């Protein structure tokens, strides 16, 4: 049997997503961040991907993670959370991932277009390879499947 190295994929999550299961369970579900991590790793492994899940409430940290992904040609699944609506710095950094020749999938647990008016704007969507919204945690599985297909 050939020992094939798994392709690394970075799954990054923005502000307040570390509070899954506690923050607005009617919107974001009752499952916690640890469950999201476990599922992403399992889903990724089933697709031949080595998934590393990260979360931060710090915009600069997310930008640095995009730089890291661009420099190492690592595909990204990103839930930018509140950064979605205003972070041009993150959008510019996300564009660098695409410039590196790897996909960047934007994912949202809820459907931002069906929520508050300010949530209808995404500065990330125009630079993302694709966007998946409103599918709960399952949206991450769909995003990982898209990455596996694209690479």
From TrEMBL:
The active site is at residues 28, 108. The record marks 23 as: Transition state stabilizer. Homododecamer. Catalyzes a trans-dehydration via an enolate intermediate. This is 3-dehydroquinate dehydratase. InterPro entries: DHquinase_II, DHquinase_II_CS, DHquinase_II_sf. NCBIfam families: PRK05395.1-2, PRK05395.1-4. Keywords: Amino-acid biosynthesis, Aromatic amino acid biosynthesis, Lyase. Transmembrane segments: none annotated. One of its GO terms (biological process) is chorismate biosynthetic process. It comes from Gardnerella vaginalis. It catalyses: 3-dehydroquinate = 3-dehydroshikimate + H2O. Pathway: Metabolic intermediate biosynthesis; chorismate biosynthesis; chorismate from D-erythrose 4-phosphate and phosphoenolpyruvate: step 3/7.
